[in-house]
Amino acid sequence: MGKKINVAIAGVGNCASALIQGIQYYNSNSSQKDSIGLTSFNLGGYEPGDINFVAAFDIAESKVGKDLSEAIFAPPNNALRIVDVPSFGIKVQKGGVLDGAGSHFSEVVKVSDEFEVNVEKILKDANVDILINYLPVGSKKASHYYAEKCLEAGVCFINAIPVFISSNPEWYNRFGDKNIPCAGDDVMSQVGATVVHKTLAKLWVDRGVSVDETYQLNIGGDMDFYNMLDEDRLEDKRVSKTSAVKAMIPYDIPMRIGPSDYVNFLQNDKVCYIYMKGRFFGKVPIELDLKLRVPDAYNSSGVMIDAIRGAKIAMDRGVSGPLESISAYCFKHPPIQMSYSEAKSNFMDFIGGKRER
């Protein structure tokens, strides 16, 4: 088993910033084995400090050409700074633009004038094990571009955004045919809107409550929410979030789930409102109103650290194609939807070698 996990990032936004800072935090506290926010400090022989960033791609002028340790704090990033990050000696390079810059994105982010690099060559030269797709929501063509580069370079693809690749048979069969693993799609936060909503929905159904209708509304103040003001970039995001909750309710009901608006002063905070209405004993009505507020980028970082380590374990074992248990545990739109408890049980069984994938 290789000790280091060589990782490349496509899209050096708030989520990349939180992930990199988080790994630095856990690495600097390794003597304490601080596992808050992680499934386990040591997962299948890998610790957070074993994740080694070796390449990064972006298109923003404010980030391209900078050391990765500087780029994660460059505007328009606004994730909370929790730790100092030493220089990586790795410069962010310009990847393919394609549809990575939407109309709202382009209002505040200037695309770098640098030449686009040969992504496949860089992945090979840096001996990358895993590429994480952190591109802006709606970057379908750009996500396909990086997935293709992973197929060409023999690199595992972890898809953190709502473009359907790891859950799309056309794509995951291609990874399987090349003996390369993939996981995704659309990373699920540790305690976020989707996991809370799907858990509540499963609880109501399991407790004999008839769910009549539900909605989930989300607002935030970072570039992710600003970018999602482009309504045509939201289709897969709505499908991803809705499918996760819908899979917990075995009948059709009126349901509306998805991002709702951009509020700039919220910065990287995300506010979620969940409403559920139903009937329990004697058809007596029951209603639930819930508000959840979290720093958004950090809410998925621990999950991504688990996904990276799980994917490397799969690579060590020669497992290829869609990683079903990792995807169900860590992502909103996996190949196979499961309740949270089932997904975690299957994930831990996979790590322990009791499940094939």
Automatic annotation (TrEMBL):
Task: Say which enzyme class the record assigns.
Answer: isomerase
Provide the E.C. number(s) assigned to this enzyme.
Answer: 5.5.1.4
Listed under GO biological process in this entry are: inositol biosynthetic process; phospholipid biosynthetic process
GO molecular function ontology, one term from the record? inositol-3-phosphate synthase activity
Gene3D superfamilies tied to this protein: Dihydrodipicolinate Reductase, domain 2, NAD(P)-binding Rossmann-like Domain
InterPro entries given in the database record: MIPS, Myo-inos-1-P_Synthase, Myo-inos-1-P_Synthase_GAPDH, NAD(P)-bd_dom_sf
Keywords for the protein's UniProt record, in alphabetical order: Isomerase
- The segment(s) forming the Myo-inositol-1-phosphate synthase GAPDH-like domain are 192-296
- Reading the lineage from the top rank, the first entry is Archaea
Provide the family line.
Belongs to the myo-inositol 1-phosphate synthase family.
| Protein's UniProt name | Inositol-3-phosphate synthase
User: Gene symbol?
Assistant: ino
